[in-house]
Design a protein that fits this description.
Length: 252
């Protein structure tokens, strides 16, 4: 009895949200273990989504480590962090409001939380004024309330469309700062690689789980390009970055 209940839960999770006429919990369970290609690809997509969400919990960990080791946020762009908070929050809100499968957007919720923590560390180390902090918090709360309580369902896609300028501002300002400073400070090539890989994989999983959602797919494609540039900058400026971080440690 317990095994049957567990089987039903797993089957519902893997195949319950599929819109395909050839995929459903009953169809796929009846074919187990010789699953059809449709059942197998849907299950694989779900598993990839879980893997991405699991990896997302560690997305900012290398940056946190660099900050705490060097006791500095050198190299991090404030506008880039603020842009990321909005960008990942938009992704999470869009998934929640459209009732998309959690495996299709869960990592954005994880990374949004971590990016908010990064913003708090920026305030701490840069000694941000009370006014600037209050303004940022007020704007974020107003944005959440408007998105959840005011935005009509037919305009939910605006959250993703608005991610394009947020992504360009966030990644673009960080790319510009890196180019001007000639180092990447406490940023982590591991985090940028995870973002790059995650965006590439999300293109495939979005097409499988949600379909040809133009807004989402264009956003992920743009993210691939900008994250690739950040990875290249981390490699190009690695020598200068080591010198800057070494100098930061000596000051301590």
């Amino acid at each position: 009895m317990i095994l049957k209940e567990m089987q039903d839960i797993v089957a519902e999770f893997l195949w319950g949200s599929s819109s395909s006429d050839f995929v459903s919990p009953s169809i796929c369970v009846s074919k187990f273990p010789f699953l059809t290609s449709d059942c197998l690809s849907t299950a694989a997509t779900k598993c990839v989504g879980i893997a991405i969400i699991s990896a997302a919990f560690l997305n900012k960990a290398p940056i946190f480590r660099n900050i705490f080791t060097n006791k500095s946020v050198v190299g991090l762009s404030t506008s880039a962090i603020y842009g990321e908070v909005i960008m990942y929050s938009n992704g999470a809100l869009y998934g929640v409001l459209t009732k998309a499968p959690f495996t299709a957007y869960g990592e954005t919720l994880c990374v949004a939380s971590q990016t908010i923590c990064l913003a708090l560390l920026l305030w701490h180390y840069n000694k941000a004024s009370t006014t600037s902090k209050a303004s940022a918090v007020g704007f974020y709360v107003a944005y959440l309330l408007l998105s959840i309580l005011v935005l009509p369902p037919q305009y939910y896609s605006l959250l993703i469309v608005c991610n394009w300028p947020a992504l360009i501002i966030s990644r673009g300002s960080q790319i510009r700062k890196n180019a001007l400073d000639k180092h990447t400070g406490t940023q982590s090539v591991i985090t940028h690689l995870m973002n790059l890989t995650g965006s590439l994989v999300r293109i495939a999983t979005t097409m499988k789980e949600i379909g040809m959602d133009t807004a989402l797919l264009c956003g992920y494609s743009l993210s691939v390009l900008l994250n690739a540039i950040l990875v290249l900058q981390c490699i190009m400026y690695s020598s200068n970055t080591e010198k800057v971080l070494s100098g930061s440690k000596k000051k301590e």
